[in-house]
Design brief:
By secondary structure, the protein is of the alpha/beta class. It is built from 18 helices and 8 strands. The chain has a 4-stranded parallel sheet. Helix 11 links the parallel strand 5 and strand 6. Helix 5 runs parallel beside helix 7. The radius of gyration is 19 Å and the shape is globular. Bound molecules: adenine (ADE) and zinc ion. Adenine (ADE) binds next to helix 4.
């Protein structure tokens, strides 16, 4: 595309990437060997026969939950602080090469805790990766802890208490909170009490909604205090709600290649970027789980350009909104604009 160099050079902010979603098949096999962890046997699940077989299986996810099974199985190879630091660093190097200047990254501590890895280990490792990105790459970073919807609320409440009690909280090592994992099934408002408590403390909040779920998942997330919506593509099905989201300047963190791989849309053409631009809905373009969905942030930008042929002006609007809606001080925004 003639705009490729321009798109590569655009200063990017990434708002929707799960660090555990940066765990490539080769890193899964490498860390399994390093940590003496047995992966599912290939007779149980032929996808684990080899790096190539696992990579090939990722091209055939049938739904969010089909993907999540691999995502949660894969992250079981992460055990030590060094594993988490290495994983974060591998993402930041790639993001830097793609032109990312600021990255807000998710992690799922409940899932690590449920297999015996302490909250403090996970956060210390990921924070070390962030520190290194800041000092060696000049990338600004934010860690966002996600609550997962497939585990009981009591588990989320426990990790929220741990988050508050940890010295990292006062130091704002973990900047904000989100929720993720299975969308349709668990109660839409399962984190109502936690979000109310966190909002009262002024903690920045986001939420995965409107990915597989209908627009009522989005309105519920907003009602609970989410200031941003992760995915949100099904917002186009509710024009009234879309008007409100535009008016309130709520950012959607859209992930086009993820939406295609998880069959939320048949192709990137069906990701409603043009409808959002026309309605004045702010959005950023992100990779979600790049090791699983066949591309990092630049691949997502390029896929949008291939499918939608946006103008330089439209790209500038996207890039500017991505900076303006980042959870960073105005001085940092000014450097990025
Ligand atoms: N966790 C990691 N990726 C996710 C996605 N796309 N939706 C919900 N939860 C997730
Ligand atoms: Zn996500």
């Amino acid at each position: 595309s003639p705009l490729h160099d321009f798109i590569h050079g655009l200063p990017k902010c990434e708002h929707h990437v799960h660090l555990e979603g940066c765990l490539t098949p080769s890193l899964i096999f490498h860390l399994a060997a390093r940590n003496g962890i047995t992966l599912p046997s290939p007779t149980e699940n032929p996808a684990y026969a080899s790096i190539a077989a696992l990579t090939a299986r990722y091209e055939h996810f049938t739904s969010l939950d089909d993907f999540l099974a691999f995502y949660f199985e894969g992250m079981a190879v992460l055990r030590t602080e060094q594993d988490f630091a290495d994983l974060a660093w591998s993402y930041f190097q790639k993001a830097h090469a793609d032109g990312v200047h600021h990255a807000e990254v998710f992690f799922d501590p409940q899932v690590h805790q449920s297999r015996g890895v302490a909250y403090a280990t996970v956060v210390a490792g990921f924070a070390a990766g962030c520190q290194r990105a800041e000092s060696e790459l000049g990338l600004s970073t934010r860690l966002i802890m996600c609550f997962v919807r497939h585990l009981p609320v009591s588990s989320a409440r426990e990790v929220y208490e741990e988050f508050l009690a940890h010295e990292h909280f006062q130091a704002q090592v973990v900047h904000g909170l989100g929720w993720s994992s299975s969308e349709v099934g668990p109660p839409k408002d399962m984190f109502r009490e936690i979000y109310a408590a966190a909002a009262a403390r002024g903690i920045p909040l986001t939420a995965h909604a409107g990915e597989e779920g209908d627009p009522t998942y989005i309105s519920t997330a907003l009602e609970l205090g989410a200031q941003r919506i992760d995915h949100g593509i099904r917002l186009v099905e509710d024009p009234e709600l879309m008007k409100r989201v535009a008016q309130e300047g709520i950012l959607l963190t859209v992930c086009p290649l993820s939406n295609v791989r998880l069959r939320c849309v048949p192709s990137v053409e069906h990701v409603p970027v043009r409808k959002f631009l026309e309605a004045g809905v702010k959005f950023s373009i992100n990779s979600d789980d790049p090791a699983y969905f066949g591309g990092y942030i630049l691949d997502n930008y390029c896929a949008v350009q291939e499918a939608h042929q946006l103008s330089v002006m439209e790209w500038r609007i996207i890039a500017e909104n991505s900076v303006q809606e980042s959870w960073i001080p105005d001085e940092r925004k000014a450097e990025l604009l």
